[in-house]
Amino acid sequence: MTYSQQNKKPSWQKQTMNKKLKAIDPSLLPVRSEIARSTCFEPTLAFAYMPLHPFLKKSVYKKGYIMPTEVQERCIPAILEGADIIGIASTGTGKTAAFLIPFVQQLLRNKNHSGLVVVPTRELAQQIFEEFKSLTAGMNFRAVCFIGGTPISSDISQTSLTNHLIISTPGRLLDLVRREAIHLDTVKVLILDEFDRMLDMGFINDVKAIISYTALRKQTLLFSATIKASQKKLIDTITNNPAIIDVSSGHWASASVEQNMLEVGPHEDKLEVLFNLLSKDNFKKVMLFAETKRIVDKVNKQLVRKGIKSNAIHGNKSQNYRTKAIEEFKAGHTRVLIATDVASRGLDVQNVTHVINYQLPQNIEAYIHRIGRTGRAGKKGIAYTFIN
C-alpha cells in the first residue's frame, strides 16, 4: 500500500465524515472480506534461527511462538535496523509481538534503551504490559503501565524507578508529565498502537503533545489494522522515511471472519432475535457490541434475566470491574461480554466464536476492529450485524 493509493478516499469514507456522529449506512459495510497475503504466507525463517539473543529465543519458544506471522517476519528485521515503521495488518496477526520482540532484542543489546507505547484503551495497555513481562521473564527489565481509573499516587511512586518500557493511555501519561513526575526526553522508541485511532479527533491533541515531549527519540513505530488517508500529512511529520509494511490494505475485514447481516423487521423484538441466536449451541464465546453505555447495560440485564452468563464493560465501569469482567470472560466463566467500542481494539481473547454488532458502529474502522475480536491467529470466526 502506498500513500498515493490512500489519497483516493473510498466512497464510504466521504459519506461518513459528517460533523455529527451517526451510525454508518449498512449498505456501505465492507462485507467483502479481504484475502490478506498472510492467509497464504509461508515464513522463511523460524524464530529459533533469527538473529535474536538466546534469552529472547527461549522466552519466545515458551510462549509457543515457533514460526513468525507475515507482519512479524517483515517488521522485526526492519525495526532492528532502526527504521521507522508503519505496520498495517489484520487483527489477530501478532502485531504486538512484531514490535515487542525487536524492542526486547534492542534492550538486550543496550540496557540504556528505552521505549514508550501509547494506546487508546486501558485494556490494551494492560495486555501489552503482560506480554512484555512474559517475554522478559528473568531478564531484569522493567515496564510500567499507566492508565486512568487507578490511583495516580501509585503511578508516581513507580516513576522514580528505572523503567525500560512505559505503556500508557494518553491522558494519564500527560497527567504525570504535567506533574513533573516523569520526563519523556530520554525515550528512544515511540510506539503508537492502533495509531489511526490515536491520530483521530478524540486523542490527537494529547498525542501531539506526547510527540513533542519525545522529540529526541530515534525511532517511531505505528501499528494498526486500519489506516485513514486523511492522516497522511500528520504521519509524515511524525515519522522519518518509514518502511510501509502492509500485510493488509487497512480497509477490509479479515478473510477469516464470516460476515452476516441480520435484518430486524419493524415488528420484530430485537432482544428476542438476540436470544434466539444465543440459544444455539455453537455460540460458545460471544462478544456483543453496542454504541451506548445505556444499551450495553440494558442488554446485559436482559441476558442475565434469561439465565445467560454475561457481563458488561464500558467507560462508566471502574477499572477493577472492567479487568475482572474481561478475565472472567477469558476464563469461560461468562459466555457473553457486552461492550462499547472500549473493547473493540487490540483486546486479545482466545477462541471468541462470534461477534455480534447489536448496534451499527459509527464508522468502517470500528466495524473492522469489532469483528476482528473473532477469527484470530488463523482461526475462523463468525460475525453478525443487526440491521434495523
Structure report:
The chain is built from 15 helices and 13 strands. 36% of the residues lie in helices and 16% in strands. A seven-stranded parallel beta sheet has the order 3-4-2-5-6-1-7, with helices on both faces. Strands 8-13-12-9-11-10 form a six-stranded parallel beta sheet, sandwiched between helices. Helix 4 runs parallel beside helix 5 and helix 5 packs across helix 6. It has 388 residues and is an alpha/beta fold. The longest helix is centred in the first third of the chain and has 15 residues. The N terminus is likely disordered. The two termini are 35 Å apart. Helix 15 links the parallel strand 12 and strand 13.
Walk me through the topology:
Blueprint lengths: L2 H4 L4 H5 L38 H9 L7 H11 L4 E4 L6 H15 L5 E4 L3 H14 L7 E4 L5 H7 L6 E4 L1 H9 L10 E5 L1 H4 L5 H10 L5 E6 L7 H7 L4 E4 L10 E7 L6 H9 L7 E4 L3 H13 L4 E4 L5 H13 L4 E4 L14 E4 L6 H8 L9 E7 L1
Parallel strand pairs: 1-6, 1-7, 2-4, 2-5, 3-4, 5-6, 8-13, 9-11, 9-12, 10-11, 12-13
Helix pairs in contact: 4-5, 5-6, 8-10
